[in-house]
Structures are given as structure tokens and as C-alpha cells.
Amino acid sequence: MSNASFQPSNPGLTTVGLALATFMQVLDTTIANVSLPTIAGNLGASADQATWVITSFAVSNAIALPLTGWLTRRFGEVRLFVAATLLFCAASVLCGMAQSMGMLIVFRALQGAVAGPMYPITQSLLLSIYPPEKRSQAIALLVMVTIVAPIAGPILGGWITDNYSWPWIFFINLPIGVFAALVVFSQMRGRVEQKLRPKMDYVGLISLVIGVGALQIFLDKGNDEDWFESTFIIIAAIVAAIGIAVFLIWELTDREPIVNLRLFRHRNFFAGTLSMTLAYGAFFSINILVPQWLQRNLGYTSTWAGFAAAPIGILPILLTPLVGRYINRFDLRMVASCSFMIMAWTSFMRSGFYLDIDFYHVALAQFIQGLGVAVFFMPITQIMLSDLRPNEIASGMGLATFIRTLGASFSASITTFLWQHRAIVHHAQLTEHLTAYDTDTQQAVATLGNGNVNTAFRVLEQMINQQAYQLSFNELFHLLGLVFASLIFVIWIARPPFSAKSGAADAGGH
Predict the structure, then answer these.
(1) pLDDT for 14-25, tens place per residue?
(2) Per-domain residue ranges for the chain?
């Protein structure tokens, strides 16, 4: 029996198993976001060190993505899916058992690495069990899961952290993952799969790991080490530059590259991938900034930070099926431009936020942004794949996912650095006129401390610190708004037609 004719005994149950595995994996990209302050406090780490919990997962996930094709040919899709899902569960348990920030970062990197093949394999298996006329509905389901999961992450993570303890945000993966693996294995073990011994591009893989790993270390540790004043950071920058240069040259000249960079010769693929990477990176920054700002500046609990962020998911859940059905009646560049305009507008809205802003206005900005999210993924993905040949679709999807994931990781590091760096600058500006001899300062100290000078200065310092972080937050969102607005020009580089090729159904990362 060929793969094309194979049907599981219960396609609905198989779909649930595949969707749950994807939900679990994508959920873990954001579930720790609202818990970072708690995790940092419990493990004796700083806020910027805690960001490694996010970036270590994203970087190792991105590096593992290009291995999907090789692993699929070597072990088969069903076996690879089951193994990756169970290993993800094991890594999740290790994350929950971590006793230090260093251990947690290592286990998160392991979790991201084994998760690498999960999404493309899920996509491939899901498309294989439906006839061509129903595949668009299958893709719409997967898009909905990948939109809802990052939004559910902060709510679930916040509720678990406040009511139980942060390790349970990782332990909950165990029953979900085991159930998904058992369902898919029992339903699809009869699927015939040809296993090969493909050639591995070791030079490409090693240079990728070294180059991207060193670049991530450079971005994450640069601020702590005072950038190029540190020998360690200089070495990391040199290693990153050499590693990435070797990777680019080798991948463009090797006959069987692990990452097919030659696909960027296609105009629409280039425009779509660039737009997707920058927009997703900016979107990822919002998902990191908003929950931390709500807790650090506004004093929200993890749970309420999750609730405030949650409205972003309402419109995508409601509109994704309609978008999938009617999107091709419009110029896809126009649809993507509308998405970027909404994302820019809500970013500019947040750039005007202040310390006394109420829950309603925070949630409203999230809700409106949800409209942009609902019409973001599908049009750009279709533009991206529209000028690839049928036999290039799978490689194109893998390459775009790889770059998008890498972009999200770098975005997390850069956002955290800029928020803290600009807060330090604003703190210095706000305090430069405060002296013990200034009448206004003396009055403020007398009022705040009720006669106790030490208490007064602590309260004053806290107020200045909050205001500095708020000004930095506003600046960052103004910058994100400009990024989204500029992407309107990028997407119009693409040229119609944008109809999907017949090979698009196989975009599963073979």
C-alpha cells in the first residue's frame, strides 16, 4: 500500500493527535513568557538571564529544523513524529526538574532541538490523510492551532504559575504528548515508508550550529559583558562571523545543501520570507514585552497578565476559517498590507501607554491586533510559495520556517536588550536634576518617607525606575510600529499570480 492511498482507521482521531502535538510544541514557545519573573526569582537569576529560557528553545529549534528532511528519509515520518514527540515530553520533564537557571537553559535547548521536526512532519502527515479537495481545510486547522497556541501560552502559564508552581508549565506536556504519540502511532503504523541512508551535509550543519550559536551568545551576553570591551564578546562575534560566512558559501555551492539558499532567487519567495521573518519577529517581541511590562510596571499577577494578553486570540479563532475560504478573491499583497497596517496601528497605540492605564485599554489593543494576526499568516505563506516549482515547495517551507524561527529568537534577545538599555538611559536622564540641595527633591523626600529619608529614597528610586522602563517600553513600540509599516513596501516586491502549485500539498519538510 502506498502512502497516497493509506488511510488511518479513524482520520478524525488521527487529526486530533497531530493537532495536539503541534499545539503542545507551539504552546511552549510562549508558555514561559509570563512566568519569567517568577522563574528568575526562584532560580536566583536576573531578568535578562531568564530571557535565555525563550531564546535557547528558539535557537536550537531553528537549527534542528533543516535536519527534518534527512531524518525523515532515514527513519520515516511516522516513526520520527512519535520519537520527536516522546523526546519532547522527556525534555519537558527535565525542564520542570531543573534546579538552576543553567540547567533550565540546557534542557530548554534540548527541548527545542527535539521539537525541530515536529511541525513540518505534522503538516506532512496531516495533508497525507486528506484528499486534495480537503487539504485547504487541514491547513486552516493547523494555522488556527499555531495561532491559538502562542496566545493560550501566557494565560495557561500565568494560571499555573500563580496557582501551583512554574515547573508545572513543563510537566503538563507529559500526558498531552504521550497521548498524541500513542494515537498517531496506533492509527498510522500501517503506513508504508521507504527508508534510505541519505548523505548528511556535515559541513553545513556544523557551520550552522557554530555560527548561529555564537551569534545568539553575542546578542544575549553582550550587554552583561559591556559589548566589545569584553574579549569573550569579541571572540563570539568573530566566531559567529566566520561560522555564518562558511555556512553561506558552503550552502550556495554544495550539491545537496542542508539548507537550500538558492530558493531566494525566486522573487515572491524572497519577498514573502523577508516579510514573514520581520513581521513574526516583531510579533514575537510584542508577546515577550507585554506580559513582562504588565507584571514589572503595572503590578499584574502572572494570571492577570495572561488574561490581558488573551484577547489577541479571539478574532483569529473566529476568522481563520473565513480567511481560508475567501482570501483568494483579493490581491494577497493588499490583504497582507492591511495586516501590517493593523499591527502598526496597535503598536503605535501601545507607544502612548502610561503607568496608570487600565485593563480595558491594554486588552483592547490586544483584541484589535488579533484582526491583523487573523489575516497575516495565510496570505504571506501563499505569496511565499507561489513562484516555487512543485519539487521546491517542501524545501521552501522548511527554509522559511527555519529563518522565521531564527528571527524570533534574535528578536527576543534584541528586544530584551533594548528595553533594559533604554531604561538605563532614561533613568539617568530622570535623575540628573535630582540633588539633596534641590527644594522639589527635599519636598518629595519629606512627603514619600513620612520623615524617614531612607524609605523615601527607596520609594523615589522605585518610581523613577518604573517611569524609565515605561518610557523605554513606549519607544520600543513606536519602533515596532515603524517596522510593521515598512513591511507594506516589502510585500509589494512580490508579483502575481499567487495561486498555489500542485506540489503545495506536499510541503511537509520531506
Answers:
(1) 888 998 998 888
(2) 1-198, 201-257, 266-510
